[in-house]
Amino acid sequence: MSLVDQNKDLIQRYTAAIWQGQSVEATFCAANIVTHNLASASGVPNLEQTAAYFRAALPDLSLHQTMVFGQGDRVMQHYTVKGTHSGAPLFNFPASGRELTLTGQNIFRIADGKIVERWSIIDAADTFQQLSAAGGQS
Amino acid sequence: MNENEIKLAYRSHDEGMIEGKLEVIDEIYGEDFENYSSGLPEFLRHGRSAIYQHYTFLRSAFSDIEIETHQQIVEDDLIGLHWTWKARHTGDFLGIPATGVQVQIEGFEVIQVRDGMIRAAWIIQDNVSMMAQLQAAALKQA
User: Fold this and answer.
1) Residues A61-87: what's their mean pLDDT?
2) Of all residues in chain B, what percent carry a pLDDT higher than 70?
3) Is A33 on the interface with B (CB under 8 A)?
4) To the nearest whole percent, how much of chain A has pLDDT over 70?
5) Scanning every residue of chain B, which has its alpha carbon at the shortest distance from the alpha carbon of A39?
6) Between A62 and B142, the higher pLDDT residue
7) What ipTM was predicted for this assembly?
8) Chain A residues with CB-CB distance to B44 below 8 A
9) In the CATH hierarchy, which top-level class contains the domain B3-141?
């Protein structure tokens, strides 16, 4: 398996585990990982906490679609997560019982089989639009 | 993917969005183009006309558009970009009249190239920040 394929496989396994609610940050990421959130609205430090926040609001969520490709030491991922908003409030919107789709993209830099840097964005504007359409009040 | 195919992503930004030579869209995008980005209205999803309308709309609201690309990742038929988009707000944008302010947001873009043309796109940019920057500028001027 080429290095790029190994890196893509690592990211597939890591993100599948994260969205299943497993605690794998320490297994897959270097201790001194550097993270960047492109969207200033979200200041969440790691993916495990991001997933936990969404899981509290959408208890049945699942990683629905993922596209992963890489070059050199980078892997880019586009993903969607689907779940029913039946749990905790999400961005201050109370549970509506409606299905929500969250869309995000990540770029990972990988060295020696560990994630050493991550850039992330979630389409928060689209999430707000879905929450508003579901009839919740902020 | 060859160098000319990689350049399509940049030509779309530079010649299309920034310089406004919208006729290049016919050379760059396939007729079967689909924009799969989340949150887009239906009329901005299908075919070359979706890009025409998107760029025409952006150019009616913004001037002095600049795109600085920070990262490029290419494998098989996919190109991934990480960029900062800067522009001056000089026309109505979703109900906010021109403020003259310069806005700046980061974003990611994945495009799929087949047979020398862009066939699909998945773009996420920080639109929450964009609206916040524009609303703050509008409030200051009210």
Assistant:
1) 95
2) 100
3) no
4) 93
5) B126
6) A62
7) 0.94
8) none
9) alpha beta
DSSP annotation string for B72-116: EEEETTEEEEEEEEEEEE-S-BTTB-----EEEEEEEEEEEEETT
CB atoms A119 and B82 under 8 Å: yes
CA distances to A68, A108, A122, B22, B141 from B58, rounded to whole Å, are: 29, 30, 22, 12, 22
d(CA A122, CA A105): 7
- Mean pLDDT score of chain B, rounded to an integer? 96
Q: Are A124 and B128 in contact (CB under 8 A)?
A: yes
What chain A residue is nearest to B133 in terms of C-alpha separation?
A: A40
Alpha helices (runs of H) in chain A, residue ranges in sequence order: 3-19, 25-28, 47-57, 124-133
What would the pLDDT profile of B100-132 be if each residue is shown by its tens digit? 999 999 999 999 999 999 999 999 999 989 999
Question: What would the two tokens of residue A39 be?
Answer: 């969207």
Q: Round to whole Å and give the CA distance between B83 and B80.
A: 10
CA distance B137 to chain A (A): 17
Residue ranges of the domains in chain A?
3-133
Question: Distances in Å between the alpha carbon of B74 and those of A23, A61, A69, A70?
Answer: 31, 30, 8, 7
CA pair distance A128, A123, nearest whole angstrom: 9
* Yes or no: domain A3-133 corresponds to CATH 3.30.450.40: no
Do B39 and A129 count as a contact with CB atoms less than 8 A apart? yes
- Which of A11, A36, A38 to probe by mutation at the B interface, max B CB count within 10 Å? A38
Question: What is the token pair recorded at B54?
Answer: 């998107």
| Mean pLDDT confidence for B12-25 | 97
* Chain centre distance of CA A6: 20
The whole-number pLDDT of residue A44 equals 52
Residue B41 pLDDT: 87
